[in-house]
Design goal:
- The structure is a single chain.
- The protein is of the alpha/beta class.
- It has 2 domains: about 120 residues, CBS-domain, CATH 3.10.580.10; about 160 residues, Reverse transcriptase/Diguanylate cyclase domain (Alpha-Beta Plaits, 2-Layer Sandwich).
- The protein is built from 9 helices and 11 strands.
- Helix 6 packs across helix 7 and helix 7 packs across helix 8.
- The radius of gyration is 29 Å and the shape is elongated.
């Protein structure tokens, strides 16, 4: 499962900067710098003095604004005449929101990026386009995805279940659900800690996702340690086979669980329900049937698959 787990609000400067850092000597002419920036497709460049220290920054906007305004000779005027100084810096480990604050506070459009005292890149205002695009994508994902496991959340599950119910009702095709719950998960959390519990949930979610092969099959975290799978156009027999496949994949993870009463490893209990939607039924009833089957799986010893009305 490919899921962006990086929290965008903590996106680091080093993830968005331009690297390596390029510079020119302070005695370079305007024409030399313009040619250098053009050939390297740069919109900004740093200026070095004879001691190889960075003393300023020049952008393409400086050429159009400062050079034209003062009518500099491009062949004779050196670049230090139009550079902005001093160079403002930020650590690569800083978050992008902090970089934005500094640029706004200082009224600048570029920051030199440092790591352990060394200059490693440049962060320009243009880099925030990529950052905000990632933020927008993250917020969009957050609306439908579970923040921990990356699979869909309950809100999205409710929406898709209603949509699939209407579609399969119209097509007179089956709609199946699998509900599953990690066995003795509270004991697992109490024994191994909540961080291990979170890692366990992620691994279980990944295993369920790996079991699904069709793009229309949806897995969601229903709440806590409970998951649900929507299988459109799948009959009860095939849905039961899928549930057994998921159960086996999770057992094969061999996640140690010392306090489980049924296995030395993490296991799950699963309930399966299927129906051809009609006006006499509802998706809420289908969900209830799968939930009751899951409850019966726990009563029958856990680590098993039980079919609704079985």
């Amino acid at each position: 499962m490919d899921y962006k787990k990086k929290i965008i609000s903590g996106g680091k400067v080093r993830d968005y900067m331009t690297s390596p850092i390029l510079s020119v000597a302070e005695d370079s002419t305007l024409k030399e710098v313009a040619d250098f920036m053009s050939s390297n497709k740069l919109s900004v460049v740093l200026i070095k003095n004879k001691s190889l220290d960075y003393i300023g920054v020049v952008t393409d906007a400086d050429f159009t604004r400062k050079v034209a305004a003062k009518e500099y000779s491009v062949n004779n005027t050196t670049i230090n005449s139009i550079m902005s100084a001093p160079v403002k810096t930020i650590e690569g480990s800083a978050i992008m929101t902090e970089a934005n604050k500094r640029m706004r506070r200082w009224g600048i459009r570029n920051l030199a990026v440092t790591e352990k005292g060394e200059y490693v890149g440049l962060l320009s205002a243009v880099h925030f386009f990529s950052y905000y695009e990632n933020v927008e994508e993250y917020l969009s994902d957050l609306a439908i995805n579970d923040g921990l496991t990356g699979i869909h959340n309950r809100r999205y599950f409710d929406e898709i279940l209603a949509v699939e119910w209407k579609r399969t009702k119209r097509e007179k095709s089956p709609l199946s659900l699998i509900m599953l719950d990690i066995d003795y998960f509270k004991k697992y959390n109490d024994t191994y800690g909540h961080q291990a519990g979170d890692e366990c949930l992620i691994k279980v979610a990944d295993a369920i996702s790996d079991a699904l092969r069709r793009s229309v099959d949806i897995v969601a975290r229903y709440g806590g340690e409970e998951f649900v799978v929507i299988l459109p156009n799948i009959e009860l027999k095939d849905a039961t086979h899928m549930a057994e496949k998921i159960r086996a994949l999770i057992v094969a993870l061999e996640i140690e669980h010392k306090l489980s009463s049924i296995s030395p490893f993490i296991t799950v209990s699963l309930g399966v329900a299927s129906i051809v939607p009609s006006s006499d039924s509802s998706h809420a009833k289908l969900l209830q049937s799968a939930d009751e089957a899951l409850y019966n799986a726990k009563l029958r010893g856990r680590n098993c698959v039980i079919v609704a009305y079985d």
